[in-house]
Design brief:
The complex is a heterotrimer. Chain A is mostly helical. Chain A contains 14 helices and four strands. In chain A, strand 2 and strand 3 form a beta hairpin. By secondary structure, chain B is an alpha/beta fold. Helix content of chain B is 26%, strand content 31%. Chain B is built from seven helices and 19 strands. In chain B, strands 1, 2, 3, 4, 5, 6 and 19 form a seven-stranded mixed β-sheet that branches. A five-stranded parallel β-sheet of chain B has the order 8-15-9-10-11. A three-stranded antiparallel β-sheet of chain B has the order 12-13-14, with no helix packed on it. The longest helix of chain B has 19 residues. Chain B is elongated, with a radius of gyration of 21 Å. Chain C is an alpha/beta fold. In chain C, 52% of the residues lie in helices and 9% in strands. Chain C has 17 helices and eight strands. A four-stranded parallel β-sheet of chain C has the order 2-1-3-4. A four-stranded parallel β-sheet of chain C has the order 6-5-7-8, sandwiched between helices. The longest helix of chain C has 18 residues. Classes of the chains: A mainly alpha, B alpha/beta, C alpha/beta. Chains in contact: A-B, A-C, B-C. Chains A and C meet through helix 3, helix 6, helix 7, helix 8 and helix 9 of A and helix 2, helix 3, helix 4, helix 5 and helix 6 of C.
Chain lengths: 236, 336, 309
Amino acid sequence: MLEQTKDWDDDFYEKWKPIAMGFVNEAQKCLQCGKCTGQCPAAAVTPSYNPRKMIRDLVNGNIKRVLSSVELWQCFFCGGCYAACPMDINFQFFVFMLRLAAMNEGYGWEDVKQLEGYAEKDYLKNGVTVSDFERNPFVVDTRGDISKIREAAGLTSKRQVSDRAIAEINMLSDLTGMTSFMKKIGGVELLDCRTCTPEQEKKCKHKPMPSRVGKTKTHLRFYNYGEPGGKKHAEA
Amino acid sequence: MKKTLVIGGGIAGITAAEKIAQNGAEVILIEKENELGGNFAKLTFTFPVLGDAKALLNKEIDATQSLTGIEILKGTTLEKVNGSAGNFTVELSTPAGKRTENVASIIAAPGFHYMEPTAYTEYLYGHSSKVVTSLEFEKMAAEGRLPKGKVNVVFVHCVGSRDKAKGYRYCSKICCSYSAKHAIMMKKTNPESKNYVFYIDIRALGKGYEEFIRSAMEEYNVRYIRGRVAKVLPEGEKLLVRAEDSLIGNPIEVEADLVVLASAMEPPVGSRELAQVLGIETDEYGFFQEIEANVRPCHSTKPGVFLAGSCTQPMEIASAVGMGGLAATEALILAR
Amino acid sequence: MPRLDIVAQIPKPKQIFLFRSCVASNKYPGTEACGRETLQILGVEPVESDEQTCCGGFVTFANVAAPTASMPAVARNLSLAEEKGLDTCVLCNGCWTFLNEFGHFMNHNEEVKASVNMMMNMMGREYKGTSNVYHIAEMFYRLKDDIAKNVKRPLTGIKIATHYGCHYLAGGKYSAIDDAQMPSYLEELIELMGGTVVPYTANRECCGTGFTQIINGKDSSLEHTQLKLDSVKEADPDLLVVQCPYCHSQLDRVQQQLNYHNAGDYQTPVIHIAQLVGLALGVAVPKLAFAAHISGRERLEKVLDRVGR
């Protein structure tokens, strides 16, 4: 299909950089050598998955294709691309950033929805993300009750996380906007007090926090989130 | 007429000394090894014309040695330099002991070093005897130890070059051409062999180079695959080479009996120390810095010290010879 | 070759904060119990805390939360070790990479750290960035002399294959104690305890979990794991040793699934390095908790018979 370079978005990369908080680095250094794809476990089993091509699209600004792609959600997050990269590009963090951006455009909700339960029902409820619940009945048949095995091993029958700890992570989830993000499954935005709009400022005042800790002054706010969610998702 | 000191008995140094002597001036050629020839002497064939490297080099060495006015000191290193352009006092450490000479100028031609790719453990270098560098391949070819029968040989470009993480950021310039040469040598020696070259970009920057590389593909059936090799895995007696065929966009695996790594040309061992003795500057990698890259390529940052050959940048034989001649001309001006 | 300069920087503390892992606690409790027991035998007292939660890595990398949201969770967990003035020892590659990377990031971004500390202060905590995070395999390698001295059940004749796991080696390209492409410290530990190392082709391949792929991209995940397991099966080791509970769960459980789907017959027991060291150091059999393992249970019993119960 004929591609139009006028559709490319030159600012995308710069715009989304702060979301990944500096973890993304220097995609423009990519040599397109293909060492990443050559060792990629996802590429080995998924015909169309190709990290090299995704970096190319990102650098060129042809991010429409990346954001709407199914491949974006097929990354294994193994980090092998970073280990292999001759230019030290940490591609897994790009995937991370691109997924957030894609969600903002309304893509990938089905994927994240399947995972949201782990945060809501396990992490925030019990303090551990992987619970002792077994989805696979064969596992239980083979092994029996895990709490018995724990007891035999000299551990408490259930892994203990204190009530205070669970309250604290819930509080952090609220403060950082994770809770609201999960509720709306909305897009995330990292706001900067220096460029804050009055509207955002108004929201901010609901949760006043000091802008100084000790000697360090900060302008970053963790709990500000942008428009809830992908446009398509909002329409649906 | 004053004397000139030439450091390094590789092709650049030999050429410089030869030209100075042919012009009737006196020259001292020092070489730290016990033989002349440098890296050239390690080759079997030249490119882009498959010339007999040993014969070509010996002809040059013989011509140089037969000239009057050249004193060749093998096993000799430079210890100290005093003075300025037109009047340097140099202290040499020869097998016969210390020696002091007065020279008008110095030509530095210490050559280069083939990088030892020990950091490339993903290619099993140092872990498998079937993974060798191009230099070792040259030796294997010279000794008739190239694999026989139905074998797959994989040539890997850009090992140590164009690699910020494990090597150097620069392009090593000649690897594309010498890998093609190796693939052709392999096919000529063993017509049953299948040869694969993994490249990122093909840089054939010289007369006849493009044609040479095309001939590898067209006449010798060398398979060129665009993609940097990601890893080499041991599989029984064989090796598995994993990479991406990036023109197709698909991961690819090649079963190999021999993997040849085109290791980068790097600055000669001890280049920074030599630069310090000479009082000249090096670039970020340790290559000698010229004052101007285009019209003063053989002028170091110190007047009276001239540069020749691959101590300045990765370079093929023809350029090293050209630079040797240019450095000789500059030296003759001061020798007069 | 292990990077000995990095190993040399690991202290041998009297006490260490043992950071428990979700998967290890709830799926393979032997890892947790052995982590505790082995450290004790090696002269390092593990300190645990019920205040410790999940590292938050899964939630973050599943894109349910932004990195901004998980930063304070990392800070909170690390502050628990800091309060006690201890370094942290983790059992899981994921915890290692997540706590390390995000801790490193906060330590090098004063502003972010201050923002995080606002929230920490609200709950009476503070993140200083003084607790170093070590993987238990790193600790084992650091304490290898003590391990050699304390071997009670030599692993003589036991064929063992290794699997390092991506999130330790790849994530630790520059900070892991070994070369990300050609690690060998687990092999060294195995030989130290008398075992025989079995090499196999896919040693350095990913386990196939693919982080979230096992949940929402199951086909590609299983396909990759099968590639790995085929290679393991060819080498036919008595044990496959991992150092990450997540890889552990994948490699162990997928065997059963593949067997069920008639995709082959896979019976290789998978155990965590803490369990292997526990086995060699003579930790009581119930504390090894091999009962929680799914695949190769018979072979696992045979291994126990051979080294002595």
